Amino acid sequence: MSPRTKAQFSEIRQKSQENIENIALELFALQGYHATSISQIAEKARISKGLLYNYFESKERLLDSIITKVYDEIMRMVQMSENLPAEKQIEQMIVQTINHLKENITFWRLYLFLIHQSDVLLKLSSVWEKMRDDYMKYFVGLFEEIGSKNPAMEAMTLGTMFDGIGLNYVTAPNGFPIDEIRDYLIEVYAKNKKD
């Protein structure tokens, strides 16, 4: 058996890190950030606490990594549609945001818990602010492009709607008309803006 290459070690490290993040996300969303210990995460990941600290120097850094990954996913969604006309970009972002919510309900459940914990928000304020500011700046630009009378308010209202939809969906996903709401948002924000 030949020794592992640097690429193989890198791949193993990345998979281990993703496994730790997925387990931490699950436990943070189920038990809460404060109630989840590094020991619990390590135990569920079947690694030693010391090895976990080799990947993440603290529980806060682990949470920061989870949030940063979602931020990166959102920014990739933005980049995927940026060559489309503004109305189409708004439509695509509504569709992709709702899809992301449906496919990543555990993360959004955690997000909604965290926004009510001021001490955690304070620790992660730079990550939260960057995510919110970049997302809002993107939508303000789109609403400006389509001639909205108040682009900042349009972007803020749509963002607030996403938060409300998220709250309702993660609380009771069965029976919540998320696809109908998605279609309504598209109708209101992407198709009727020229009126």
Assign the CATH architecture of the largest domain: Orthogonal Bundle
Helix content: over 70%
Termini separation comes to 69 Å
Average of per-residue pLDDT values: 89
Which fold name is given in CATH as the topology of the largest domain? Tetracycline Repressor, domain 2
Tally of contiguous helical segments? 10
Largest sheet: none
Structural class: mainly alpha
Oligomer: single chain
pLDDT < 50 runs, ≥5 residues = none
* Strand element count: 0
Strand content: under 5%
Cα-atom Rg, whole angstroms? 19 Å
- The SSE order reads HHHHHHHHHH
Q: Give the CATH class of the largest domain.
A: Mainly Alpha
Cα shape: globular
Number of domains: 2
